[in-house]
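Human:
Class, as today's exercise, you are to examine the entry below, and be ready to discuss the fold:
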Amino acid sequence: MAGEIAGHALNQIYLHRSGRVIVALMLCFLATSILQGASRRLPRMMFWSAAFLLSLLGAVLAETTDISMGVGDSGAILLIAILLIFSFVICYRLTGKLPGPADGSDVRGFFWATAMLAQTGASACADWIIDPGGPSERLAIAVIALGIAATVGLHSCTRMPRSTVFWPAFVLSGTVAALAGHLVLKSIG
């Protein structure tokens, strides 16, 4: 939620320079990721710092994709979903498994790349829900709640691999957090 709020603030201030902002955020994210892999000190702080940068980057990328494509949030969601599927396929073909947060260093890069795409997709979904031309907010929240319940049910009642259940939960919870960030921004404005 904090990343979504900060991302929208950056979009308001630097929208005309969004390419530079994206490069700067990616460099910060890359440095944090390298530090996380190279240093065994403060692993949780490094992980959550990377996660915050990821949510901030996702908010900026979602808005930039929407504006630069000129097709609206639904087009941005479709493009990001295609890239996310490619990320899953490439990781699975190269490593034999889907990336997960607890996996070793052999898929850590795939995890962060996939997480960036998933968070960008979640932010774009929240933007689409908030837009006047988007779906009904109540319907969207009901679908998200059902999706979270189904994910919890799959995790509890099946032997499905954790990484398979993790990604839908990641996108759904990221969408909820982005919606909450929008709500905070709307209440402030």
